[in-house]
Specification:
57% of the residues lie in helices and 15% in strands. By secondary structure, it is α/β, with parallel strands linked by helices. The structure holds adenosine-5'-diphosphate and magnesium ion.
Amino acid sequence: MIFYKDTDINKFTLSFKGQREKDYQAYYFKSSLKIFRVAFLFVALLYGLFGFLDSEIAQEHIELFYIIRFWVVIPLLLSVFAFSYLKIFEKIWQWLLFLSFIVGGWGIIIMIVKMPENITYYAGLMLVFSAGYFLIKLRFIFATLAGWLTLISFIIAVIWYSDITYELIIAYSFFYISANLISMVAAYYIEFFDRKNYLLTNQLNQKKAELEESNKNLESEVKLRTQALADSEKKFRTLVEKASDIIYSISSNGIISYVSPNWTALLGHDIEEVQGKQFIDFIHSDDVNNYLNFLRKISEPDKKQNYVEYRIQNKNGDWKWHVSSATPQFGEDGKVISYIGIARDISERKHAEKAVIESQRLSAIGEMASAVAHDFNNSLQAISGNLELALLKPSIPKEIKKYLATIQISATDAATRVQLLQRFAGKKKNASNYQPVKLNKVISDVIVQARPMWKDEMEANGLHISIETCYEDIPEILGNDGELRSVFYNVVKNSIEAMPKGGKIIFKTGVKGNNVFVHIIDTGIGMNEEAKTRLFQPFFTTKGFEAGRGLGMSGAYSIIQEHKGNIKILETAPNQGTAIEISLPLTIKESSLEEDDINGNSFKKGNILWVDDDAMIREIAGEMLQVLGHDGVIAENGYQALELIEKRKFDLVITDIGMPDMNGWRLAEKIKEKHFGKIKVAVITGWNKQLNDEDKMKYGVDYILVKPIKLANLKSLINNALSSE
Ligand code: ADP
Ligand code: MG
């Protein structure tokens, strides 16, 4: 459809401009066609019907009048009617109508001329005028033209061809002119309003189309917006539902109105069990106040606190640590109506934090234990040294000797404990430090060490755990015995903890291919699939939330890895017990010196210098050397020792490590600088022997003697030093 902007109508011809006029004419033709056809038939009928009148009042002209009516005018009207069915009609129809008007008019004019005295024919012309102007759909301009032409024709005809009086001609003309004028104006307005109407309809259609167009746009816009809204809604929903955090909403009085599905995943409750409940009912009573304070704070304008940590109970009744942030939603009155919060499980982090604190605490305790053990060793040295010497005296009565022997056993026990303590302190981790380790012995030590757990506590509760060992004679392996001890300690601790009602633990050792293996088999609660796969993960525990939990097996795993070995589950199932296998690579056996007794060797007397800052030890040392039959000189510090070495010849210097001013290592270094290959040096340590191995190499020390010193160990060391000269 074409729409027009300007509404100009030519006031005179009533035509529009250009294309619009063409469109209007097409429209006018279309809307007029039916009316025109009916009108033409009607007019033709009337024109014929008036023939009856002719036969009544114009008998003398009847032939002429019938010719006009039935051979000219009516055939013309019917031809035009018929012609209206041809396509070309639209182009010329107004001219044909115009022609019909005039011919119809002229027909009547002839009749008037022939019968000027009869008024009927004058009225006939009036009918022609009214039909021409109003009935047949002739346009205003054509109708006007035809009207005036007919009128002029009438005037000319009556003046020239009839003999009626001028008064009458003027009177009739007066009527016709008036009728013409009235008709002209009326036709003008009819067409004018038709055109106006056309314009308005056109504009209306235009507006309608515009409206439809914008409606369409609006619809597609709305569709797009709705889609976008749905998309973003979906996005946010997925975000909320797939988030690893819990998203929740609570009313101002604390009732849960929404929780994301993750609640179920993290805490186990079904959503229905949570919605409508008080949020703080799930929170640990010690943390409820914290949480409420948090809500209060975030509702204040300056909003200082942005998160809160609290414990929340899961469906199983366990407590989980959560951290949550939240935002208040304000109503129109500025009061809080609800809170939207995001909560995250931080149990693992809390766990780790506590574990770190605990491990720091443990390592501090370890340091302290080592220091205490060191001092303790010196005291034990004094006790057992003196005891050994006392027992050698023949003059001591028998019953006293019995008491002394008992004291000595206790002192030896105490020394073993101190040694274990030192091993557990496990100071350095360094594979180059690895020493031959007797695994069977390590295991036996661990069993003793763990005794309070599996024996004393259990039996106090009327329960019983038995431990069986099934050792093969396995070769020594290279490793750090302190670390290995902690591995077995943790494994056996787990086994004991898995048997709260008592049971049995079996240790089995043996050789398989190039490996030494240890099996630890218990009759405990066993492990489910999850525990089986997560056993070696740090912080994995099924023993509830407690500091330092879940580190035993991960620690064991890394120690065994460092030893190039392997630790794995052989068998386990819920309530079927557990079997763990640890295997470690075989290495060449190295003989360890201090434990070897060199009994029966031929005796050599040696010159020995002993350096110690502790007077009590110096005293025992002197006596020990004397008992062993060597010539001993005692010095109380490094400088004194160096002076003595300059004056006398010594085969061996035995020195304490921890001394003020010049320690044992420095002294050894000095001696080796001058007398390398001539004087052997042994250092005495209160610490674990391995710890000093690196220094031993560095300062050229030949032997390390561990406190408390036993006479037998001292004897074999001296023999060794003298015989290897
Ligand atoms: P913790 O003993 O502190 O829980 P561990 O790392 O030593 O940590 O052990 C991790 C978990 O492995 C234990 O919580 C337990 O579930 C499981 N586990 C370890 N050893 C055994 C065993 N012998 N029997 C049953 N479960 C065990
Ligand atoms: Mg454990």
